[in-house]
Amino acid sequence: MHRAKYHKKEKYMRKTLAVLLCFVFALAAFQTALAQTKIAPLDIKERNLKNGLKVVSVRDDSSPTVTVQVWYNVGSKDDPNGRNGFAHLFEHLLFKSTKNLKSEQFDRLTEDVGGNNNAFTSDDVTAYHEVVPSNYLETILWAEAERLSNLNVDEANFLSERKVVQEEFRQGVLAQPYGRFYEAIQTNSYTRHPYKRTTIGTIEDLQAATAADAQSFHKTYYRPDNATLIVVGDFAQSQLDAWVDKYFNRIQRPNGAIPRVSEIEPTRTTEKRLTIKAPNVPLPAVAITYLAPDSKSKDIAALKIAQSILSSGESSRLYQELIYKQQIAQEASFSVDQRVDKGLLNFTAVMASGKTPEAGEKSLLAELKKIQNAPVSAKELEKAKNSIVADALRGLETNRGKAFAIGNGVIYANNPSYVNTEIKELQAVTAADVQRVMKQYFADNNRVVIYYVNEESAK
């Protein structure tokens, strides 16, 4: 009796094991296929207007919607000296009044028809984006042309939005426990390049600014030959071209060249160390930054794979080592902050209770040494590629996602069609490539180490 039960149990276990093995093999096959997935290229149309505006479009009638985006080649690196925060300020000002639009009316043109709008500012670009039902495409094209050519940068709008940006700084930097930490990473990682400015700006610089300063900034950078119009969705190409010509071609190209950043961040020759003391810091933190190559470098792909291996999810190396095994940190990450000029490669950790920034630095550098001294495993490499390919596929499922991918190609690769080749570059990365870039860019003399501590406990 007992023996028969045992044989039944053994038979059940064999079946269960067989099912599990089939699942494992199927999953492995799926992952391999995903890593080798060929993504159909977007059918990208490009044209340049006589005033210099670049127009990029992709037809996709899978839904009756359309996204309209305008990417301006101006970011916080272009803020005038003593006026840090101007690029960010204009992210707000473009939603105020124009010659033919009342203040906040742009929201009504999008939200009241079931659409949405927003904008963002980074070091290199300011972009405005909307999604609306496709039968409102002409309206949005007119409104974007109106914002470009007829914005009211008057005293009332300037003062109103300056207060908003200053309050964002108070809430996003001063009130957050680690707001000053991430600000310090940027301001202390560059010595010459204007990337050392933060995108959000400073209260002091904004307070010293005038409406006349803002008007000058708008005239300098908000011009058709400094913008790319991206339209993706349900439209007829001939109709889109006619509307773009009707509303944008009439805008005159201003005389004079557009100022460009010429400063070059010097190569680091010695390690730099500093301690930042701040109020309201519940747990200490550490950051280790290295200068990265510019965004057009072929090494970016291998660095992104390394980022995934080191820092993507609970199975990543940093999570497993610092958080799970050593239990010295509650957060640990590695990020590739790509920029048009030299970017940053950042290791960061927020320590666990009772643990020190010194311990965090030691463990982060130990993980760096591991990935430098031995090639990553085939399993890790495949997993990283799977994750990146899956993210790319999800991003390209929507019109907005397609347009964002095109915009990133415009700014960071100077190529709207880069979206059609980027995945191939990532899929081609080898373990040797990862090991090479981790050795190349992470020298001891290319390092800034920042300890972030509570000002009370540091006394």
Describe this structure in words.
With 459 residues, the chain is an alpha+beta fold. It has two domains: 45-248, Cytochrome Bc1 Complex, Chain A, domain 1 (2-Layer Sandwich), CATH 3.30.830.10; 272-454, Cytochrome Bc1 Complex, Chain A, domain 1, CATH 3.30.830.10. Helix content is 45%, strand content 17%. It has helices at residues 2-35, 86-93, 105-111, 137-149, 155-174, 179-189, 203-208, 211-221, 237-248, 300-311, 317-325, 357-373, 378-395, 399-412, 422-427, 431-440, and strands at 45-48, 54-59, 65-72, 116-121, 126-133, 227-233, 272-278, 285-291, 329-337, 344-351, 448-454. The strands form two sheets. The chain has a six-stranded mixed sheet, sandwiched between helices. The radius of gyration is 25 Å and the shape is globular. The N and C termini lie far apart (75 Å).
Q: Mean pLDDT across all residues, rounded? A: 92
Q: Please tell me the CATH architecture of the largest domain by its name.
A: 2-Layer Sandwich
Distance between the termini: 75 Å
Which sequence of SSEs, written as H and E, runs from N to C? HEEEHHEEHHHHHEHEEHHEEHHHHHE
CATH class of the largest domain: Alpha Beta
